[in-house]
Design brief:
mainly beta, twelve-stranded parallel β-sheet, 4 helices, globular, disordered C terminus
Length: 463
């Protein structure tokens, strides 16, 4: 065993010793060697360099605009040269500079050609980059929030790989998805995904962690879910410490045979009505086929706990069974609401307007605080004003508890050890209901407190 460990260490040290650094600049030249003094210019050149990359290599992006337009050689880019668990391949911004990858394709000439822009291999890191779709390019797929051509709503990142890390990035104004994940053990943290037409995160993989991100779906189309958990392959993901705002169909939805996923310590703000006038919700369920086409049902083990939900909603929780043609979900789930099998506890639901839908009594819904809810309250939960800072506000700080809140010290067992801001729980006799622990100093990491801007904010990074 010691010999094997020594060999593994020697391989790792050898990989790191020969790790190379390459540089990109909008003012470079593709005939350059890719050094800091003589960087490459285009993503096409970086695509051609994939065969030269090795585990441990870093590609540095200097500040400025990297434009993907109709003259670009590639319709999409595969950053798929694999790193290893001990030597990732990294794509990073250089010394706090702001590189912006601008998607400006305006000619549609190949159906399905815009499935994704960047496909990621194993053990890839993307850190500190901004991705922006121009308004004329966006209009080819979506106009005024309505999809006019689904083939032209690109996904920014598609990952079937293992050990991918995406952090400190901004994805703005894309008509398609932010991140599609169907791999294993991804880490997505400290990103801002603002104004996407489709989902912010589409989670269909295993063992991923999505934390400390801000998602704003205010420009989404009618069936947009800010976070969708989908397919029988979606198992064991952690989604926590995120600020999730202004979804269309739902802030978060469990769909198909997803299992053992945990959603906690998130702040949800607003779910604007669907454009077609249909309902929208904070936590939703949708029954759809498995990835292989077999009938699906939401499996046991999913948990939704210690979240705080404020703002405008039609339903805060939609427990209905979605029955698209051919799904047969009613039969496979015994005709019961899909939410029956999700543990829903220690949450605060405070819509500022009375939702039209009442709540169903669910066997695993317990110790939640509701306010402004129409209809009867499920047994084991409390109807009381939780005394939040500003339930009609637009930042996560507005969802914090005030002194004297009935949520203080009232969480049941199973509350996470840290709160939304990574403050230690409990402070007092027991942990608090909701995403925040009253009186807990912020810790290292934690979700965004300010709430940031939106695509219409002149202070938001734009071109």
């Amino acid at each position: 065993m010691r010999i094997l460990l020594m060999i593994a260490l020697m391989i790792s040290l050898a990989q790191n010793a020969i790790a190379a650094e390459y540089y990109m600049s909008p003012f470079g030249n593709d005939s350059n060697p890719g050094t800091l003094a003589a960087p490459w210019r285009t993503l096409d050149r970086l695509q051609r360099a994939q065969s030269s990359l090795r585990p441990g290599d870093t590609v540095w992006f200097l500040g400025g605009n990297y434009v993907i337009n109709d003259s670009a050689a590639f319709l999409y880019y595969r950053w798929n040269t694999d790193g290893t668990a001990s030597a990732h391949i990294k794509y990073r911004n250089y010394q706090n500079q702001v590189p912006v990858i601008v998607f400006d394709r305006r000619v549609y000439n190949n159906p399905q050609s815009w499935g994704y822009i960047f496909g990621l291999g194993d053990y890839i890191e993307v850190d500190g980059l901004t991705f922006l779709q121009t308004e004329p390019s966006r209009a080819l797929g979506m106009v005024n929030g309505v999809t006019v051509n689904k083939d032209m709503t690109p996904t920014v990142f598609s990952s079937y790989g293992t050990g991918v890390e995406i952090r400190n990035c901004t994805i703005e104004n894309f008509s398609g998805l932010g991140i599609f994940y169907h791999g294993r053990n991804i880490l997505v943290e400290n990103n801002r995904i603002i104004g996407t037409g489709s989902h912010g995160f589409y989670v269909a993989g295993y063992g991923g962690t999505f934390r400390y991100n801000e998602l704003d779906g205010s420009r989404g189309y009618s069936n947009q879910y800010e976070i969708q958990l989908q397919y029988e392959t979606c198992i064991g993901n952690l989604i926590y410490g995120n600020l999730i705002k202004n979804g269309r169909a739902a802030n978060v939805v469990l769909s198909g045979s997803v299992a053992n996923n945990q959603i906690f310590n998130n702040v949800f703000i607003n779910n604007v009505p669907k454009l077609n006038g249909d309902y929208s919700n904070g936590l939703g369920y949708f029954c759809w086929k498995n990835y292989d086409g077999t009938p699906a049902r939401v499996l046991s083990g999913n948990k939704f706990y210690n979240n705080t939900m404020i703002g405008k909603y039609y339903y805060v929780i939609d427990t209905k069974i979605g029955l698209p043609s051919g799904s047969n979900c009613g039969a496979t789930n015994g005709g019961r609401p899909l939410a029956d099998k999700t543990e829903i506890y220690n949450n605060i639901f405070y819509p500022i307007a009375l939702p039209d839908g009442s709540l169903e009594s669910l066997p695993l819904m317990k110790n939640n605080i509701f306010f402004n809810i129409r209809g009867s309250l499920p047994a084991g939960n409390t109807l009381v004003n939780p005394n939040l800072v500003n339930p009609s506000g637009s930042t996560s700080a507005d969802a914090m508890l005030q002194a004297g809140s009935p949520a203080i010290d009232q969480a049941t067992s199973g509350a996470p050890a840290l709160d939304y801001r990574s403050g230690a729980r409990p402070v007092g006799a027991a942990a608090d209901v909701g995403a925040f622990e009253y009186g807990a100093p912020p810790g290292s990491g934690g979700g965004p407190v300010g709430g940031g801007g939106s695509p219409s904010d002149p202070n938001f990074p734009c071109i």
